């Protein structure tokens, strides 16, 4: 009798092209992955994986098994869905989130997800987009809510919401309520890290407009950016509504600007494959919550 868990382990080891990444995703150990695949090879009496290559490759028998394994696992997932079992099975979803989302609608997403899937627990990591994309492709997270869009092999990308980029400053730090190019040339601008496209685009635009290297301070923490702006170190450029509490307290004010910057587009990414239906449903919840939250902020 073929063991479904062994087929699942084999499938994900191939999909992620790594025994260690499969172990991380399936919450087991690398020796267990090796033992399960070796057990399948013994059961079928043929080599499935060529371990001499780096990374490993499949033999002809391994490729044949992969096709059947995916078919079987998808059929099992469909059966669980049709019987209403998928949402009732305890499961941990590893979620990567941009900090902007933490400051806007993450709490509502978690609340709605727990209402729809009470047996799902979330393991949450907050990081910048380039890092999350790497960990997603490595199989270390299941869903990433981050800047996009992007086209990545075997990864779905679903648009969630757009946020305009907004300048913020401490009250009285800037004369008037509009930042001119001359003021942006003079003042430090505090924004997202260097390996994100808001920084690269901001630097390029200011360089072209002022013919000098702009003064840009970067940080991966929105809380730190917020504090630096409130302490009058410079003006902050982040997603609109990220500093709502500071606006309410009067620690910061929103500033218009002569600099035209495109909106930040946030998307949900998840790896396509077996058992992707739950991830797809969670992403739909994220899309719905993000849209509702943004509409509420605009109308408010």
UniProtKB/TrEMBL annotation:
UniProt-listed SUPFAM superfamilies: Periplasmic binding protein-like II (SSF53850), Winged helix' DNA-binding domain (SSF46785)
Chain ranges passing through the membrane: none
Keyword DNA-binding (UniProt): yes
A Pfam family it matches: HTH_1
Annotated CDD domains: PBP2_LTTR_substrate
Domain of life: Bacteria
Family: Belongs to the LysR transcriptional regulatory family.
PANTHER family attached to this UniProt entry: HTH-TYPE TRANSCRIPTIONAL REGULATOR, TRANSCRIPTIONAL REGULATORY PROTEIN
Protein name: LysR family transcriptional regulator
Species classification: Bacteria, Pseudomonadati, Pseudomonadota, Betaproteobacteria, Burkholderiales
């Amino acid at each position: 009798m073929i063991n479904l868990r062994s087929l699942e382990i084999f499938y994900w080891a191939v999909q992620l092209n790594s025994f260690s990444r499969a172990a991380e995703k399936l919450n087991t150990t690398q020796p267990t992955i090796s033992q399960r695949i070796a057990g399948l090879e013994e059961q079928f009496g043929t080599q499935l994986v060529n371990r001499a290559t780096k990374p490993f490759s499949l033999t002809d028998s391994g490729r044949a098994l992969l096709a059947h394994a995916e078919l079987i696992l998808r059929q099992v997932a469909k059966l669980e869905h049709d019987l209403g079992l998928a949402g009732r099975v305890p499961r941990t979803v590893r979620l990567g989130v941009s900090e902007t989302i933490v400051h806007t609608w993450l709490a509502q997403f978690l609340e709605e997800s727990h209402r729809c899937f009470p047996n799902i627990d979330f393991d949450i990591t907050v990081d910048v987009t380039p890092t999350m994309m790497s960990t997603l492709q490595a199989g270390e997270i299941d869903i990433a809510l981050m800047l996009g869009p992007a086209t990545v092999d075997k990864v779905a990308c679903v648009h969630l919401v757009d946020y305009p980029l907004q300048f913020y400053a401490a009250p009285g730090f800037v004369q008037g309520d509009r930042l001119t190019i001359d003021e942006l040339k003079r003042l430090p601008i505090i924004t997202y890290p260097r390996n994100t496209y808001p920084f690269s685009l901001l630097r390029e635009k200011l360089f072209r407009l002022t013919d000098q290297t702009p003064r840009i301070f970067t940080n991966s923490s929105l809380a730190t950016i917020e504090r630096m702006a409130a302490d009058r170190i410079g003006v902050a450029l982040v997603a609109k509504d990220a500093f709502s509490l500071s606006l309410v307290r009067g620690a910061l004010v929103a500033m218009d600007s002569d600099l035209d910057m495109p909106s930040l587009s946030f998307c949900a990414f998840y790896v396509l494959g077996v058992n992707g239906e739950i991830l797809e449903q969670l992403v739909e919840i994220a899309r719905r919550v993000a849209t509702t939250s943004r509409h509420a902020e605009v109308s408010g």
